[in-house]
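Shift notes (night). Ran Transposase DDE domain-containing protein while the centrifuge was going.
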Amino acid sequence: PQVITGGYNDNVTETYLKFLFNVCRTSPDSTHGNKYFEGHQFTNFVLIVNGDIIPLASVPLYSHYHCKELGIRYQSEIEIVTQWIEMLPESELLTADILSKIYVLLDSGYDAKSIQNAIQDAGLNFIASITCGRNVNGLPVKDYFRRNRHIPWRTIQMKTGTGIGNRVRKYRARTAKNVHLKGSGEVTVFCSEKRSRTARKTSRKYIVTSDQHLSTRKAVINYAKRWKIEVWHKTMKQFYGYGDCRCKNFRSVEAHINFSLCAYCINSLCDPNLPVAGTTLDQYQACLDWSKAAKVINLFGGREKIKDLAAAEIQKVMNG
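Came back to this:
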């Protein structure tokens, strides 16, 4: 499973700004036409298990003026994420078994030393996109890969979509292991970009992971799953009214967001593909393995493939 941190929700338009409380100003980006946008901002934490999204928390960001009215200390978005990750092991929100298998996915907007250190202090691993100016082995990561041209490119193929006729998207990546990321310690750095005629130069990303044993392919595939939160935001706004609140009082906006998340969770429980209540993670994984074996056995040479799958699973558990 992966925990994805990030994503914000802008609920208001500029027409109503002077009548609303706790209005935050976001940085300019391509989503809002490369200009500043003002609205209510929430930081969402979700858990991805086998492609399914489980919302864990939606934390509001309070403006300086609103914090002064409430008499509380102002916290930036980076501080909110850091504090939430620090309390995650003690919150009993997730079991120790799940926490040991989690990768925290972060985009470049959350490239902060405090967040990365909090993840490692909690005993978790992270896969994060960093800015091109982040220092690696005494050099900006962009210059590091430019000066170390001997590091080869490796092509990675990823399937997109589901069902028959799904397309294959090609990436290429360079890997630098056991490098020092300033402020975060020893990491593995990947330089990844799309490999196609229509790919833009902006498709290049610098990805780091604290798991030294993670392969290049798995790191790129796991980071690509971060896009699911953007699709989830679109689904929440289209079908669950996530951004349809025009209340003046910010407490009403918070309640509306929480009710939208509850509606999503209740509707997701009706999915026939989900296990019954009380099923453990190991039982659910075993069910998926049996389903995979049922499909393989009908293929040509299915018996040999079943033996290979069984041997691979036994090797994961048994020593030698």
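The chain has two domains: 2-269, 281-317. The CA atoms of residues 130 and 197 lie 25 Å apart.
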